[in-house]
Design brief:
homodimer; alpha+beta; 3-stranded mixed β-sheet; 5 strands; DNA-binding
DNA sequence: GTAAGTGCAAATGATTTGCACAGCG
DNA sequence: CGCTGTGCAAATCATTTGCACTTAC
């Protein structure tokens, strides 16, 4: 339910972000940012590269990697690992959870604020300092269920 | 609180497992199995290789990889990904959750059966069929907290 | 004996890095 | 103009695979 910004808004918004974090605003970074904003499927670096390439044909894969690392450092995105060995990138940095399909590995966001309120088991008191609760649900998504039946 | 088996028990137990799944009992597999049983720290393939190597100096890393893949296929272990890009292996295949240290990346098991009972948010009803709930807590472990202060 | 399992070395796939040039501030 | 960012190619790291030899059953 996130509002998609209009093109010109993105530029203004991204300029602010770059200034705030002291990084240069480049065409490549802007387009990677744009792709990330439009993505709701937690793409891998390779997938992001392919999407950006449609707009910036001369971009290189390692620039995508470098930019993603930069974006992660400044807290613009989150790197996630799930059932795959390759990383995926999540432009949603606010606390939320994931449902992952065991078959197609598609990752979908969901929120469940109530989970924060439930007291943790006693045994964890001595583990250290817990900062975040991340829940990953696993199962078969609708599409894969369909395919299994068909 | 899992009882560690005595050496001879392991052999008997592992022979049964191999028969059950129709895989051959080899020295290498037995020793990898032993290392997994003794491990409570979710080692990577490389770490498992190093530990097995102390007992079987001629073992090769790719045998470790192949064996871990076989063990996973028959349901003896679980492959897990967390903050790292490299896989770790969990000899505990019963449903349980993890606390991960954001600094040292150490993974510790914990169980929280109550989490199963809590009804999931409505919006997930239409996602598909959810089979498993996995919770990952993140924070700083005791050791890393100490080091940060010191 | 025969197919499955192993070790070696080489291939692969994801990600990182050194270097020279380009472009933002 | 100076330094950060980019593109290219080559390096690295985790993991996989082809092949010839070994071994469990």
């Amino acid at each position: 339910m996130k509002e998609k910004s209009v093109s010109s808004d993105i530029l203004v918004e991204f300029r602010k972000i770059c200034e705030k974090h002291g990084i240069k605003l480049t065409y490549q970074r802007l387009e990677i940012y744009r792709v990330l904003l439009e993505a709701d499927d937690h793409p891998s670096a390779e997938e992001i590269f392919l999407r950006v390439q449609e707009r910036v044909p001369t971009i290189s894969l390692d620039t995508v990697y470098r930019t993603l690392a930069t974006f992660e450092k400044v807290g613009l995105i989150k790197k996630i690992y799930s059932l795959d060995d390759k990383a995926r990138f999540d432009p949603n940095v606010s606390p939320h959870h994931h449902v992952v399909c065991s078959k197609c590995h598609r990752i979908t966001d969901f929120s469940w604020p109530e989970i924060e309120k439930i007291p943790l088991p006693e045994e964890l008191k001595e583990w250290g300092e817990i900062k975040e609760r991340y829940l990953e649900l696993r199962g078969l998504c609708k599409d894969c269920l369909q395919r299994e039946k068909g």
